Amino acid sequence: MAPTAAAAEASDLNVIRPSWRGYNRLRYLVIFGDSYSDIGYLYNKITTNPSDEAPLGIEFPGVTWAEPAMPNWVGHLITEYSQSKLLVYNYAVGGDSVQGVRKQVQVNFLPRVGEKPSWAPWSADDSLFVTWIGINDCAHLELVEMPDTLDELFVEQERLYEVGARNFLFIDVPPIHRTPVGVAFSGADPGFDRPYSFWNSCLRTRVHQFARDHTDATTLFFSSWDTFTRVLDNPVAHGFDPDHVAREGGDIWADNLHPSSRMHDWIAHDIGKFLEAQRPYRSPAATAVGRSSN
């Protein structure tokens, strides 16, 4: 399905339904994605489950693609920018594409945590399902293949919905053309950024459609593209050396593609602020009463 000429506006993408009781009421964070979210934990029948003492299920901060022994956005979020004690089920795997998310959902999540066992009794109201994927797809797909690939991604969102997920957070891809490796490629290919911006346009359309088709689901859309762009456009204001905007192994980039832990901190900061800004659901009747009493 190709994106429409008028891709969904942000206000249409953040749709609050009764399942959303507010960021501070969440207990479970379920994450699907790639290296930007990976903490190095593979779930199986013998692994340790997340607990208040070990919210990631492994020793903090896990094994990330930032600097050694440093947290990515997931670790920063639960330690610095959460409003409740979150238990994290993180299925993200470095190098994964949408095809990998299919395995994350069907093989790793659904047969265990998806069944709501006694040790993970999540509900529609206290869980948030986060999907941040697309970087690796954009590196390999032709533009004409992206809409169908995103349709496949939303087949997996449908599976999550069918087992009771009702709060969904979708994150778009960052401006990869501004990573150190992206800057190098952009010099030879001025259109290097196009796959990433096109993917994000298609994603917005699919999120809008998902919200329209699932009238009891809360859908949220966070733009990592905007966060990275803001930081890279004004690094000093964010505590970074301006000479490190495209430097591999500098303040902003841990290597030629992956953000440093300090950059992940800004991602977590923005995600936390974004989620905090999403007020709990109020029925139209309650809203009308509130207005009439003012």
From TrEMBL:
The keyword Hydrolase belongs to this UniProt entry's keyword annotation: yes
Matching SUPFAM superfamilies, A to Z? SGNH hydrolase
Q: What GO molecular function terms would the record report?
A: hydrolase activity, acting on ester bonds
Pfam families per record: Lipase_GDSL (PF00657)
Q: Which UniProt keywords apply?
A: Hydrolase
List the InterPro entries. GDSL (IPR001087), GDSL_Est/Lipase (IPR051058), SGNH_hydro_sf (IPR036514)
Give the signal peptide, or none. Answer: none
Please report the name of this protein according to its UniProt entry: Thermolabile hemolysin
